């Protein structure tokens, strides 16, 4: 009897992670299912969905006849994801908790728990993503210490694991995995990498996993679920009322409960206004939220942005970028938005400027700029600075033209 590899599969109680565990078991691995509890409260209807999800995950493990564990990261989630989320909202930014949750919880604490506490040879998740290594390569990986300098020694010979889009391009989840560490990526298997969502559902039905098939797709904030966002955030942050101000003429249109309850591009609910107004900018010093009277208003469109230090999944920036400081690739900042061609410029501090081939609607500080080269997801960086909007540029051009015309006007002759 040969040596059987031990794989720990993260189980959420949903169809994807359930089928991931099933496929690993069918391939002869020794599989352990683990449910992570990361949030500790009832939803708005007073129902604790975590308990139901945990029960569903346990039932799947019983059907598959694999061991089941439950682990709590409530404290870690609070300190490393949720506190960060609140700080970002207070700064006027809109964070992405799902990307942060994968970075800090699933592919950090859970990864260490799987490998070091449960003694697994690898971990697995139900994400739709692919890597550059075969499963057998995963088991050969050893821990690599992160670099102590900004970039690694260029003479160090390495063979980093790369991440590629999953076969189901609609479900592809590389966007949400764009901040995970190379160390975790090297030791992770994605059993659904070559499958479509439809085929995954078919496998679940044939295996009798009907209780997870009936569940609807989770779409809310990672581990917080679907709830009314303004009510939820006001449980944690003091209301800071301010004005809705027209970007066009400075008219006060109405009031809001706090800039952190609003994000760029969303429709502003302004009492007494018949027409739709959209959030285009925020001033956290005054509490003013600037609004425009159309969903495609030029104040919502920009084509340049800067990130904080960019997280490259392979640790180092691509050789082309390191060599010339510039690179052509593709950009998105919302999962499933169409990819936009862009030019990336690398800064000395590891941050990047991204110049888009066309202006994009509602670029939002705090969200992650995720870069792709072909099918490869290169990594991501948090957007911290935006270039001027098309509206600002338009106004600037109008002022220049007006100034030039003013200069050209002949000065009247003084009366003799």
UniProtKB/TrEMBL annotation:
The keyword tRNA processing applies. GO terms for molecular function: ATP binding; tRNA binding; tRNA-5-taurinomethyluridine 2-sulfurtransferase. One of its GO terms (cellular component) is mitochondrion. InterPro entries: MnmA-like, MnmA-like_C, MnmA-like_central, MnmA-like_central_sf, Rossmann-like_a/b/a_fold. Residues 302-382 form the tRNA-specific 2-thiouridylase MnmA-like C-terminal domain. It is found in: Mitochondrion. One of its GO terms (biological process) is tRNA wobble position uridine thiolation. CDD domains: MnmA_TRMU-like. Its EC number is 2.8.1.14. Catalyzes the 2-thiolation of uridine at the wobble position (U34) of mitochondrial tRNA(Lys), tRNA(Glu) and tRNA(Gln). Required for the formation of 5-taurinomethyl-2-thiouridine (tm5s2U) of mitochondrial tRNA(Lys), tRNA(Glu), and tRNA(Gln) at the wobble position. ATP is required to activate the C2 atom of the wobble base. PANTHER family: MITOCHONDRIAL TRNA-SPECIFIC 2-THIOURIDYLASE 1, TRNA 5-METHYLAMINOMETHYL-2-THIOURIDYLATE -METHYLTRANSFERASE. This is Mitochondrial tRNA-specific 2-thiouridylase 1. It comes from Seriola lalandi dorsalis.
